[in-house]
Task: inverse folding
């Protein structure tokens, strides 16, 4: 592989044979720091999961739409939309961003802008952008630096029409762009680094230069092309073409440079964020997810099976198969939004199956097992969270 470059950055990346790397060592991927904010959050998760396991979750009355609107209302803290009304009742950058378009279409634009203003104020005080803000003041990354925090924050601001916040926090954002460039980009490969673990929605598993991390690189580069107030050190890179060369098999995106399996997130997010408009390509990728059972009993699982060797140590002990073949209600509506444009009848069929579970449980729960039951960790350690803000994405499908 060679890279032609100039003072403004590379203009062409000539990729050689498709890379097939050894799996990352999950035990070394994201060592847990000693941090009181993170420790407190872990205790909160354990306690609330235990109580939910014993006494159940809050049940909302009414139709599916009524349940979803009630969930969204309970995620509003008075200052920001939290990740959930349950044990993830913190400011989560990625979850707010992914839900921003839906929330705005549902009439919540002012609260969304207030949420972003709240988050940016805390990030500015901390001097960094992170995955999460705990206890309304502690900016921390779970479990490591996020490949998505900066790109999704900028994307969320644009989707909400709150570009004025970019100007107010220009210095912070400019510094974070340079940090992102340093930490995430492999300038020779023209993709995300293969020697690092980056947090993302699937934050409990390792993967070398995943499709999701590269989708975030491509998204950030696109956003900066249209933002003259901020530096763009990614100018000249063609991340979309590099992903085609290294990840696209002809029928699906392989999950990572160390894994040939298709994953749910690898074959949803590149289309959700508009990187590849080709409907034929989208159809083949989504057909693969259907054919391999990732959409059953509801959309959408990360993998066809558990990948125990790729699980981080703590999740492996307490929440095995948390991000294996369990079905996630964050990824599900994102999949349905992508599917809607090419196969509306199939989207409506999947939507109906998800609606049955919402009605049955009277809530919008975090994830389900293959038998359609709320996920439970080992012993009494974890129970699927309740009242997820992702309900906005599902409601937006009606």
Result:
């Amino acid at each position: 592989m060679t890279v032609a470059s100039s003072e403004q950055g590379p203009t062409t990346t000539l990729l050689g044979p498709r890379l097939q790397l050894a799996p990352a060592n999950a035990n070394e991927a994201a060592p847990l720091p000693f941090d009181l904010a993170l420790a407190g959050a872990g205790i909160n998760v354990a306690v609330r999961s235990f109580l939910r396991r014993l006494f159940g979750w809050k049940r909302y009355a009414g139709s599916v739409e009524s349940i979803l609107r009630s969930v969204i209302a309970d995620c509003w803290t008075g200052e920001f939309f939290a990740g959930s009304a349950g044990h993830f009742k913190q400011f989560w950058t990625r979850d707010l961003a992914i839900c921003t378009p839906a929330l705005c279409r549902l009439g919540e634009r002012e609260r969304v802008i207030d949420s972003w203003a709240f988050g940016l104020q805390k990030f500015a005080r901390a001097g960094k952008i992170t995955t999460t803000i705990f206890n309304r003041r502690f900016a921390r990354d779970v479990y490591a630096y996020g490949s998505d925090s900066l790109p999704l924050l900028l994307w969320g601001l644009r989707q909400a029409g709150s570009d004025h916040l970019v100007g107010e926090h220009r210095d912070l954002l400019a510094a974070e762009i340079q940090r992102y460039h340093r930490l995430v980009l492999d300038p020779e490969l023209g993709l995300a680094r293969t020697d690092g673990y980056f947090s993302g929605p699937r934050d409990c598993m390792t993967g070398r230069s995943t499709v999701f991390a590269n989708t975030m690189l491509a998204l950030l580069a696109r956003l900066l092309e249209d933002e003259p107030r901020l530096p763009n050190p990614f100018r000249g890179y063609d991340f979309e073409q590099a992903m085609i060369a290294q990840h696209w098999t002809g029928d699906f995106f392989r999950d990572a440079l160390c894994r040939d399996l298709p994953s749910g997130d690898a074959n949803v997010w590149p289309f959700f964020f508009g990187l590849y408009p080709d409907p034929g390509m989208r159809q083949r990728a989504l057909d693969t997810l259907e054919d391999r059972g990732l959409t059953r009993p509801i959309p959408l699982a990360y993998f066809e099976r558990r990948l125990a060797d790729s699980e981080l140590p703590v999740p492996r002990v307490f929440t095995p198969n948390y991000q294996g073949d369990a079905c996630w209600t964050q990824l599900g509506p994102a999949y349905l939004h992508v599917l809607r444009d090419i196969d509306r009848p199939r989207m409506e069929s999947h939507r109906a199956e998800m609606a049955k579970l919402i009605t049955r449980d009277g809530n919008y729960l975090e994830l389900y097992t293959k038998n359609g039951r709320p996920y439970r960790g080992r012993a009494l350690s974890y129970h699927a969270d309740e009242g997820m803000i992702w309900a906005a994405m599902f409601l937006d499908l009606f």
Q: What stands out?
A: Residues 1-14 have pLDDT under 50 and may be disordered. DSSP finds 16 helices and eleven strands in the chain.
